[in-house]
Design brief:
This protein is an alpha+beta fold and about 300 residues long. It has two domains: about 170 residues, Trna Endonuclease, Chain: A, domain 1, CATH 3.40.1350; about 100 residues, no CATH class. Strand 9, helix 6 and strand 10 form a beta-alpha-beta unit. Helix 3 packs parallel to helix 4 and helix 5 crosses helix 6.
Length: about 300
């Protein structure tokens, strides 16, 4: 398991969904092409045929809020030193999660950043000793919010009831649930405004449209939250894709694929009909769009 990825996996996500549709239809895809390479008027990521039906596939990465990818990129020197220092001072067989506000260490530099990191490290190690194992039903035991007067932001430390092998401590970003979900809806609205017009053009020519939403954040995003946001957004769009999937790329060993929309049925309705989650080994996938990129544009 790892933290948020700093890049998205467009080609492999497209391959994973093509593979899923092949399994559902019981037939292999043919005529796989890049509409961008062929200079189609609506250049989605990929198009292919299964039997007489054409599928048009568009991919987009989803951030829980604006600037998430940049913040994740900076975590290597802002947060990772804290995680490394704390892990060496905690015992094995337990897992602790520290939640700090979004952007809490975004402006500190040099000595100020190191002082803040040391302060947080010392507090976590001290607070961890006060936490007893939480009941499994509750999931975690919590300290009161901690406020340090020199570095004024609140932090919350949880001792998780489940152990994550080789990962006895990690940091997540916290925000109010309301503001996070408002930011998520806004990001998804922008994604739909950008991606749906291309898929609509393919639909008008008889193709079945497929939207892939790649989730590379294990801390603040899951398929249920994405579905709830999409459900709220759906009435605001005259056109909606035939199929929508969330592909989780936050675990190296496997990627979960969640079916969010299939024809007229949404995630909630589909859950009562069949298993909406499948797993795929990312190592078994071909980066399809990288193959397209190798084709000369002529």
């Amino acid at each position: 398991m790892r933290g948020p990825a700093l890049t998205f996996n467009e080609g492999k996500c497209c391959a994973a969904i093509m593979q899923l549709i092949e399994q559902r239809e019981g037939s292999k895809a043919s005529c796989v092409l890049s509409p961008e390479v062929t200079r189609h008027a609506a250049p989605v990521e990929m198009a292919f045929d299964i039997g007489p039906k054409t599928y048009a596939v568009e991919h987009t990465g989803i951030e829980p809020f604006a600037g998430f990818m940049q913040m994740s990129a900076e975590a290597k020197w802002r947060l990772t030193p804290i995680e490394d220092a704390v892990r060496n001072r905690l015992g094995q067989g337990v897992t602790f999660q520290l939640a700090i506000p979004v952007g809490a260490l975004a402006v500190q530099k040099g000595a100020d950043l190191r002082d803040a990191q040391n302060t947080i490290t010392d507090w976590v190690v001290s607070a961890a000793r006060t936490l007893t194992e939480a009941p499994v039903l509750r999931g975690s035991a919590r300290t009161p919010a901690f406020r340090n007067t020199e570095h004024p932001f609140s932090m919350r430390l949880d001792r998780l009831s489940r152990e994550l092998p080789g990962r006895n401590f990690y940091i997540v970003h916290s925000t109010t649930e309301q503001s996070l979900e408002q930011a998520r809806r806004q990001r998804l609205r922008l994604a739909c405004q950008k991606k749906l017009p291309k898929l609509q053009k393919w639909s008008q020519s008889g193709a079945r449209s497929v939207l892939i939403l790649e989730d590379n954040d294990i801390a603040a995003t899951n398929e249920t939250l994405v579905f709830e946001a999409l459900k709220d957004l759906r009435p605001g769009f005259d056109y909606w894709p035939d199929e929508i999937y969330v592909v989780g790329t936050y675990i190296d060993e496997f990627w979960p694929i969640h079916t969010i929309w299939l024809g007229e049925l949404d995630y909630q309705e589909l859950s009562g009909c069949f298993e909406t989650r499948s797993l795929v080994d990312p190592e078994s996938l071909v980066d399809i769009t990288a193959m397209f990129d190798a084709i000369p544009n002529s």
